[in-house]
């Protein structure tokens, strides 16, 4: 990719959080989006709440859809393009699923024919309503909907890998039916990359939808294990971007870093700016990155109860729209990168990944796993590592297409960084 990467934010309304759809105020939305645009960002990701938009399986509320269109138009008036998440789904520790899928109407979210037909119609309806808006980027099927399919969810809708793939393809196709030619994709949390046996897989992420999507959160054990300023913490997003690539059928499939944030106390507030700058720069040292979308635009109003503590302060701006250190750091980095952007050179050294689709393979990729730790030792040693599956490590044509000239086995990575000059 030679185009300058996109820089955006996940929009968290200042008044009422995502419950603002119940008391929708376009003036509040406009003020929020003004404060986002002032940071120099170019897009937002927005979140309808599924139960509010589709309270009955055969009812997608026209007024709710009109409000979504008004929000998207307000963003466009401020030079912001918009990605819309459909099935919300899961947000900041809360689940939002409609009553027609729970309790007396309990049905599997991924396999019940009536539920999946209702979901597809909902996604098609939202996409169709926005299809003629030039500032509409496309749909994301939902926010980390994979969380509903397996542990540690308290009430999972269990499915197989094949059923997950079928569901994803159907939902992406529904988005395409509503808005042909836009950028439609799906999003998982890092269980897809790190959890053995999870039904949503790296191959699903890298082969279904218009681009691959990663969400990077260092509260997953990375910062706890390595510390807030360690290579592993500041390179976690870059690692996920590179880990996403080997499964792609196209060697230069775009990868979107769709969520990344500075969660306290794992990243102390006094380090939030430095962490933001390092994370963005490291992510953009990976080839084929479509863009970086920070979580989130504004802090959560502390008058709202029961959020995990770290969720309240993830904003680039405060709840009263004042720029925080992370927001200032991102704005400065964006301005500089737009002026000086050059596509990163290929990562010529790749770490070989064994058994990633089998028992133990994905766990090795997680923080503390043998593959994760070897990759981070290489990164700390000045190498710019890529990732390659064992089955393609001897495929000269595939390696050449990705710009890889050297492959390294995890067992051959020294246990302690040696500090030569940068390689790869």
CATH architecture annotation name of the largest domain: Alpha-Beta Barrel
Radius of gyration: 21 Å
Q: Give the H and E element order.
A: EHEHHEEEHEHHHEHHHEHEHEHHEHE
How many DSSP H or I helices?
A: 15
Summarize the biggest pleated sheet. 7 strands, parallel
Could you walk me through the main structural features you see in this protein, from its secondary elements to its overall organization?
By secondary structure, the protein is an alpha/beta fold. The protein has two domains: 335 residues, Alpha-Beta Barrel (TIM Barrel), CATH 3.20.20.80; 64 residues, no CATH class. Helix content is 34%, strand content 14%. The chain has 15 helices and twelve strands. It is globular and about 60 Å long. Keywords: Hydrolase. GO terms for molecular function: hydrolase activity.
Key phrases:
3-stranded parallel sheet, 7-stranded parallel sheet, TIM Barrel, 14% strand, 15 helices, alpha/beta, globular, disordered C terminus, 2 domains, 424 residues
Topology:
Layout: E1 6-10, H1 26-37, E2 43-46, H2 50-53, H3 62-77, E3 81-87, E4 90-91, E5 94-95, H4 113-130, E6 136-142, H5 161-178, H6 191-194, H7 202-207, E7 212-216, H8 222-226, H9 231-234, H10 236-243, E8 255-260, H11 272-283, E9 289-295, H12 325-340, E10 349-353, H13 361-365, H14 370-380, E11 385-389, H15 396-402, E12 406-408
Structure at a glance:
With 424 residues, this protein is an alpha/beta fold.
